[in-house]
Amino acid sequence: MVVAISSRALFDLEESHRLFETEGVEAYARYQMSHEEEILGRGVAFPLVEKLLRLNQGPDRRRRVEIILLSRNSADTGLRVFNSIRHYGLDITQAVFSGGHETAPYIQPFAADLFLSADAEAVRQTLENGHAAATIMPRAAGESRFPELRIAFDGDAVLFSDEAERIYREQGLPAFAEQETSHARDPLPGGPFKNFLATLHKVQAEFPKDPAPIRTALVTARAAPAHERVIRTLRAWNIRIDEMFFLGGRDKAPFLEAFGADIFFDDQQKNCDRAAPHIATGHVPPSSSGKSRKRS
Q1: Cα–Cα distance between 142 and 148 in angstroms, integer?
Q2: Catalytic residues, which ones?
Q3: CB 244, CB 217: distance < 8 Å
Q4: Residues 13, 10: Cα–Cα separation, whole Å
């Protein structure tokens, strides 16, 4: 499994990023070089990366996860980032420093299964090119309550396509319920995170089930009778999700906090805004056509 991550998601670079925005790239470069011996603080995705890399420390020492750093820094200013990687003992050896240019074009050559970035436009480009990606919401790095890696996903427009939600939006809840009931045995088409979930499931299957180092959850606004199609879709994909929450429109944040998610992926900005103060959250923006927006 290959996960590409931006330096701003891995480390706390908000102060220097503000300098970049207000005074430009040269001032930013001078600042980073003059502070390159100072270790950067942990960013919002730092605990997630630690747990991902821990999957390589099994008894067989097999390298199951590769973390790729993608940064718009120049190599000179990126020295501070690599100094911080070495300080924290992170096993990250591959990186791109694009010198201010977009990093999204390098997702394909690395065959990345997931891209996490604070740059919403880079995320949107990556999704349009068919790769799972999410914009990391601002938040201080938290502390993990559980030793295993815990990842939570929204359903429609994230794991699944937005096909059913378009019916809800265009025709209303009764039509949505009728559609999902009548098609309960028809698997939903895959969404932008289907392939990432499948890869995660393969890694998960390599470990003993108890205690497994990965735990997954589906946290969706769906409720009965729309639950059946979701369950049968995952069966058709031969993918197991450990916990499922059919919340019928309830606020997802308390359930995500109780689950102890290391990261949660959702396409709705309001759900991300509610979850971000409690857990690391990745916003999966709708397609450029705007068709993947959904009710909650």
Answers
A1: 15
A2: 154
A3: yes
A4: 9
Determine the 3-state secondary structure of 70 from DSSP. strand
* Residues 67 and 43 sit within 8 Å (Cβ to Cβ): no
Indicate the class that CATH gives domain 2-136: alpha beta
Identify the DSSP state of 166.
H
Express each pLDDT in 106-156 by its tens digit: 999 999 999 999 999 999 999 999 999 999 997 767 788 899 999 999 999
Does this model's pTM top 0.85? My answer is: yes
CB distance 138 to 284 below 8 Å: no
Sign (positive or negative) of CA dihedral 114, 106, 7, 80: positive
Running DSSP on this structure, what letter comes out for residue 190?
A: B
Which of 3.40.50.1580, 3.30.450.370, 3.40.50.1000, 3.30.360.10 would CATH assign to domain 149-283?
3.40.50.1000
CA distances to 41, 99, 133, 219 from 281, in Å:
19, 27, 12, 13
Nearest-angstrom CA–CA distance, 80 and 77: 6
Residue 145 · residue 261 · CB < 8 Å: no
The number of CA neighbours under 13 Å toward the Cβ of 258 is 9
